[in-house]
Amino acid sequence: MKKSKAFALHLFIYSFLLSTLFLSTTLPSNASISTNVKVYIDGKLMEFGREANDPGPYIRDGRTLIPLRRIFEALDMEVLWDDKERMVTATGNDIEMKLYINKTIAYVNGKEETLDVPAEITDDRTFVPLRFVSENCGAEVEWDDSTKSVFITLPKEITSPEDDVPGGSGSTDVPVVERKNLGEEVTYNGMTFSFDLVEMRDVPGNVLGQLYIEGKTNIKNSTLLLEVFDQTNYSIRTRAYAQPSDTGIYDFVATFNTSKSFVPSYMYVYASDKNGNRILIGKYKI
C-alpha cells in the first residue's frame, strides 16, 4: 500500500515538472511580453479578433510584433511564404523585403539589415516587427507609452512616372529618348547603362512568378526606377540596384513577384534629378 502511494506521489511530481517544463518552452515569458497594444493607421484603430485566426499584436523585448497579414495589407504589399527557408517575402511600391523566422537579419531591396527582434510564429501565425516593416516601407511610426499605442502614418502614394514633368524645376540635361533593344547602351549625365535580360521566372512552391531583370552600369551604388509594361499596358514598377564590384562595371539586378501571366513587352527607365524630379532616360523593347 505504501509503495502504491509512493509511486503515485512520484508520478504526480514527475507529471507536474514535465508540464511546467513544457509550458516554459512553449509560452512567452511574462517578463518580455505584454499585450493590449493598440495600433492606429492614419488615425484609424485596427481591429483584431479574439479568435486564433486573427490574433492581436504584442510587445516582446520592447518591440511591437503584429500579424504579418494585417500590416502588409495595410502597406499594400504582396506576401509570399517560403516554407523551406522559413522566409517571408513582401513586395510592392518599389520595395522587396525578406524576413526570416527567428533570425535577426532581413533584406530590404537586397541590402542586409539587422533586427532588434526577429519575426516569429505564435499560435501558428507569423508575427513581424511593426516598426521595422513600416518604416522600411516609407511609413512614419510613433509610440505612446502611456496608452501603449502605435500610430502609423502611411506614405503618400508614389507619383506615377507619367504624372511627372521631365526636366522640372532645377533639372538639367533632359534627354531625347529613343527606344533601344535589350543589350544596347544608354548614356545620361555621365552614367552609361544597359539592360540585357527581362524575363519571368518560376518560383518553386509559390503561386506567383518572379519578374527578373539584369543590366550593368559604370556608376557605383546607382539606382534606377524601372517600369515594365505588358501588351495591355499594365505596368509593374521596381528598382534596379547596382551590385558591388571591383571591376568598375556594376551589375544591375531587379526582381518583383507578380502573376505568372504577366508577359513583359517593353520597359521605361527613370532617373531623378537633384530636386527629386523623375526623368525618363531610357526605353527598351523586350
Can you put this structure into words, describing what you see?
There is one protein chain. The protein has helices at residues 2-26, 68-74, 130-136, and strands spanning 33-34, 38-41, 44-45, 58-60, 63-67, 78-82, 87-92, 95-100, 105-108, 111-114, 120-122, 125-129, 140-144, 149-153, 179-181, 185-188, 191-202, 209-217, 223-229, 235-242, 250-258, 266-272, 278-285. Mean pLDDT is 79; it is low at 16-32 and 158-172. The chain starts with a helix and ends with a strand. The strands form four sheets. The chain has a nine-stranded mixed beta sheet, with no helix packed on it. Strands 1-4-5-12-11 form a five-stranded antiparallel beta sheet. A five-stranded antiparallel beta sheet has the order 6-7-8-9-10, with helices on one face. It has two domains: 30-153, Copper Amine Oxidase, Chain A, domain 1; 166-285, Immunoglobulin-like (Sandwich). The protein contains three helices and 23 strands. It is mainly β. Helices cover 14% and strands 44% of the residues. 23% of the residues are buried.
